[in-house]
Specification:
The chain has a single domain (about 1-320), classed as Divalent-metal-dependent TIM barrel enzymes (TIM Barrel), CATH 3.20.20.150. The protein is about 40% helix and about 20% strand. Helix 3 packs parallel to helix 5 (about 80-95) and helix 5 (about 80-95) packs parallel to helix 6. The chain is globular and about 50 Å long. The chain has helices at about 15-20, 30-35, 45-55, 70-75, 80-95, 145-165, 195-200, 215-220, 225-230, 260-270, 300-320; strands at about 1-5, 25-30, 60-65, 100-105, 115-120, 125-130, 170-175, 180-185, 185, 210-215, 235-240, 245, 250, 275-280. It starts with a strand and ends with a helix. The protein is an alpha/beta fold. The longest helix has 22 residues, at about 145-165. Manganese (II) ion (MN) binds near residues 239 and 282.
């Protein structure tokens, strides 16, 4: 059974209270989406973070996005091994303070990409979208091939997975978003179930797993429930969301209003995924009274999504 979680800021504010009022005590810390660009963490930083949450009755289950992986690690450039040592130290520190999951990605050059942030959705709420034709302009200079990225990722996994095992930390690779072969000329590799097979085969360990970001799998055009079953216990973290369209052209949807059968997806998680895998709502609609300054990451839509997740979980649990 999955464990409902929410992104919470590293410092307490009303979102901590709202989570507890919803009955959600598992926190995902993702400073890049909260407006603090930090990617480096000392042991003291991590200890302060987890103690602060612990004192409030909350549990940091995932550190996401803001992790020390540099471009030279992603591209396999000279000097990467020193940076990989930094990442290993970070994993050991996460283990010491009791953070069980680290979510990372392999997007080099261009990261999470959207071309629209004000698409009108239900009742005038706002969602984000992606239209590939609008993603134009010169290619940022990166000079890396798909094979360069693969070599770099596989080298990274062979180096860090044994350390993750020792530290008791599970790695969870997030898909490239949008899951296209390339964006503005920059190759992307983590874009299909076949790519994930290669990632998981590279180092066979439950500590080398994936973040099942559902909207990306929907955009890949695969059947979501059967793909959840395909990866099963290698899913270490779930992003619950949906999109309408494909990897060339899509909009985010309300969690209960997209094309994916979310109840079938929840049943698949219940049956195939290990206990206590954290699941958080991803990319929520911006609702009335919110300023859309951080599209996809405001609060009210998360409250709705968390309640919807809980309802689906209860239904899936009853349906045995
Ligand atoms: Mn995601």
């Amino acid at each position: 059974m999955v464990d409902p979680a929410l992104i919470l800021p590293p410092h307490p504010d009303e979102r901590w209270q709202l989570a507890k009022q919803l009955g959600v005590t598992s926190a995902v810390v993702h400073p890049l989406e909260i407006g603090d660009g930090r990617t480096e963490w000392t042991y003291d930083d991590l200890l302060r973070l987890t103690n602060w949450f612990d004192d409030a009755g909350l549990d940091v289950r995932v550190l996401e996005g803001s992790v020390p992986i540099t471009e030279r690690v992603r591209l396999g450039r000279e000097g990467r091994d020193a940076d990989i040592e930094t990442f290993k130290r970070f994993l050991r520190d996460c283990g010491r303070v009791g953070i069980p999951v680290v979510c990372y990605d392999w997007m080099a050059g261009i990261r999470w990409a959207r071309t629209e942030a004000h698409v009108e959705s239900r009742g005038g709420s706002l969602v984000t979208g992606y239209t590939h034709d609008r993603m134009r302009g010169p290619s940022p200079s990166l000079d890396a091939s798909r094979e360069d990225l693969w070599e770099a990722l596989e080298h990274f996994l062979r180096e860090v997975t044994p350390v993750a095992e020792e530290a008791g930390v599970e790695l969870a690779l997030h898909p490239d978003d949008p899951p296209r072969e390339s964006v503005r000329g920059i190759p992307r590799i983590v874009t299909s179930p076949e790519a994930y097979e290669r990632v998981l085969d590279c180092y066979d360990s439950p500590h080398n797993g994936l973040t099942f970001c559902q909207g990306n799998f929907a955009a890949m055009g695969v059947d979501v429930p059967s793909t959840i079953r395909r990866f099963g216990d290698r899913i270490n973290f779930v992003h619950f969301r949906d999109v309408e369209g494909d990897a060339d052209d899509f909009v985010e949807t309300w969690h209960d209003d997209g094309p994916t059968d979310m109840y079938a997806a929840m049943r698949a998680y219940r049956e195939a995924v290990d206990d206590d895998v954290p699941m958080r709502p991803d990319h929520v609609p911006t609702m009335a009274g919110e300023d859309n300054s951080n599209p996809g990451y405001h609060t009210k839509g998360r409250l709705f999504a968390a309640g919807y997740m809980r309802g689906l979980l209860e239904a899936a649990a009853a349906d045995r």
